[in-house]
Amino acid sequence: MLQRCLFPAAGYGTRFLPATKAMPKEMLPILTKPLIQYGVEEAMEAGCSVMAIITGRGKRAITDHFDISYELEHQIDGTSKESLLDSIREILNKCTFTYTRQNEMNGLGDAIYKGRVLVGEKYPYGVILADDLCINQDGDGVLTQMAKLYQKYKCCIVAIMEVPHEDVHKYGVIEGKELEDGVYMVSNMVEKPDNDKAPSNMAVIGRYILTPDIFPILKTVKAGKNGEIQITDALCKMAEKGMVIAYKFKGKRFDCGSIDGFVEATNYFYNLEKETNK
Asked: Rounded distance, CA 82 to CA 271, Å?
């Protein structure tokens, strides 16, 4: 089972300005929980107990959230509101949080490379992008599904979903051969291709299991799309050696980095909670 999960959380969240001027986008709430807490809970379900978070300037709210607030605890001690902290208390009791900063916004690949000091260079680790909110009401969470698949293939795994062909330019896209239902051996990956040049409509979303041998590749890979170090480019080099699997996960994914996706997720979780409380 996985023990460590990396959360790149240094981005500015400019699509949500002015809300994200002073608040990290990862702390935007879906109902009563911030996005990053949903991600941490998904990682816990997959067996992770070490949460490694890549932060940046102005992200202190994340570290404060995953810490004890003595004043707040004292204020609501013994009241009906005390139970509202049960979920975060469980996280704090079961997990260790470590942090480092990405001083410059040089892309997801650079953020993951910065995380090597937190996750180590011996064991596989999960990667969750908090603004990709995933849920599977019918069974295991997405990272748990991927962790079980890792036990079989022992290589890097990326989560994928089919997207409309007119939207492929928004994603990293894979090319590969299906090994079993929903599982592909990746032969090529392209970051945000032109719609007419995409190798498929199978898009990578913000869930990965990576092996530590990706770190030497990230150290040497050159800046790609948008002048950033792309994790897609590093994975593409590993795919050349047959070391990357793509998995069409079971469940729903909400792009909470966009206003439409954020509103859709809020409505979905609100209706889900209403059904649960009936």
From this structure: 24
- Tens-digit pLDDT profile for residues 48-77: 999 999 998 888 999 999 998 888 888 888
* R_g of the chain computed on alpha carbons: 19
Q: How many domains does the chain have?
A: 1
Residues 50/96, Cβ–Cβ less than 8 Å: yes
Q: What's the pLDDT tens digit per position in 195-224?
A: 888 889 999 999 999 999 999 999 998 876
By residue range, what is the domain housing residue 179?
4-276
What is the β-pairing status of strands 125-128 and 4-8? parallel
**Which value, to the nearest 10 degrees, does the dihedral of the CA atoms of residues 189, 191, 192, 193 take?**
-50
pTM of the full structure = 0.93
CA angle (177 as vertex; 4, 134 as ends), nearest 5: 40
C-beta of residue 225 within 8 angstroms of C-beta of residue 169: no
Whether the predicted pLDDT of 124 surpasses 80:
yes
As a whole number of angstroms, the distance between CA 255 and CA 264 comes to 9
**In CATH, what number is assigned to the domain containing residue 14?**
3.90.550.10
- Which tokens in the block code for residue 124? 């596989």
Please tell me the distance from the alpha carbon of residue 213 to that of residue 51, in angstroms, as a whole number: 20
110 SS3 class: helix
